[in-house]
Amino acid sequence: MTRPLSRRRLLHGFVGGLAAGAALYGRPHPAFAQLGDDGRAAIAAAAGAFLAALPADLQRAATFAVSDKERQNWHYVPRGREGVPLKQMPRTAREAAHELMKTSLSAVGYGKAVNIFRLEDVLRRIETFGLGRDPDNYAFTVFGTPGPGAPWGWRLEGHHLSLNFTLVPGKPVAVTPVFFGANPAEVRSGPLQGLRTLAREEDLARTLAEGADARQRARMLIGGQSLGDIVSGPGRTERLTTFAGLPLADMTGDQRTLALRLVEEYARNMRADLAEAELRRLREAGIEQLHFAWAGPLERGKAHYYRLHGPTLLIEYDNTQNDANHIHSVWHDPKNDFGLDLLRAHYERGHQHHYHQA
């Protein structure tokens, strides 16, 4: 794989970059003040501690240039991945990896991610060919050097989980694309019986759909059957460019409140300041422009799909596979997945770079 910057060059400056970053974070920095200095510093420190806990060979495997096309190479299926999986980490690095998750996510979001890990054990038990399922096969990757001086990011990815964070100086933190999946959606036997990792994502949406009157439902329904999976998967985000369904402008006040609670269920998987920034962008763009669409029956246990789509977000959810007991959900920023718009703006101000979109 050809990379604009070698891992060796990135790692060579890692310790110095952390020291310089710590010094900068200790000073007033007007460009960052309104964007959450403390949060940026905490995430950068956690990423730095994670890398520092890895032996040299795993540091090299975990680190890429922020401009590397690998940063946009996301997916939610079981497959080989770059980065360092939990199963290869020494104990101190595993602990640091979990601290990076806890620092970047809310307690609720962290809990969902850990439950997704645990579901691999459930699949190992119930699937005919489940021996390949592994709750430790989730890989961590850092892009660039954590700190305030230049763009950087980090990723956690494995089966049914993809978290992507991009931090650009002076800009909001980009947190999309975000994928959470759950198979089984409801565990029906064994030690975890009754576990529903993404319960509120399903229940809030169904309550919203059930509350629509006949006129609203005619606009809300985009199909009598589930679509079968999310549409905006890897490399397919641009397939959904037109809003469909019932706009919040045509909902009652109670329905709008419920729709926003559903959006918050996705946004608040992130740490509080990141979630608030995303929700603020939604409000500033106009919540009335957000649309809610549903496909499939409303009865629980039947295959179904829904979508929330507005100027600043695209959320898709599908529960079709395994007799409607297998959830895929994704959250995109239609214009800024992987912080691409933020990076362009950063570099257009004259910063030297070798960034290319994959």
Could you tell me the radius of gyration in angstroms?
Answer: 21 Å
In angstroms, what separates the terminal alpha carbons?
13 Å
- Provide the β-strand percentage band: 15-25%
Helical amount: 25-40%
Total count of domains: 2
Q: Which series of helices and strands comes N to C?
A: HHHHHEEHHEEEEHHEEHHEEEHEH
Outline, from the CA principal axes? globular
Largest sheet: 12 strands, mixed
* Class from helix and strand fractions: alpha+beta
Q: Can you tell me the residue ranges where pLDDT is under 50 for at least 5 consecutive residues?
A: 1-35, 353-358
The strand count comes to: 12
User: Helix tally?
Assistant: 13
Overall pLDDT level: 87
Can you tell me about this structure?
- The chain has 358 residues and is an alpha+beta fold.
- The protein folds into two domains: 7-174, no CATH class; 199-335, no CATH class.
- It is built from 13 helices and twelve strands.
- It has helices at 7-12, 14-25, 30-33, 37-52, 56-62, 91-104, 107-126, 199-210, 214-220, 253-267, 272-285, 321-324, 340-348, and strands spanning 63-64, 84-85, 139-143, 152-158, 161-167, 178-182, 221-223, 246-247, 291-295, 304-309, 314-319, 327-332.
- Strands 1, 2, 3, 4, 5, 6, 7, 8, 9, 10, 11 and 12 form a twelve-stranded mixed sheet that branches.
- Strand 9 and strand 10 (304-309) form a beta hairpin.
- The radius of gyration is 21 Å and the shape is globular.
- 43% of the residues are buried.
- The model is unreliable at 1-35 and 353-358 (pLDDT under 50).
Please give a handful of descriptors for the protein shown.
globular, disordered C terminus, disordered N terminus, 2 domains, twelve-stranded mixed β-sheet, 16% strand
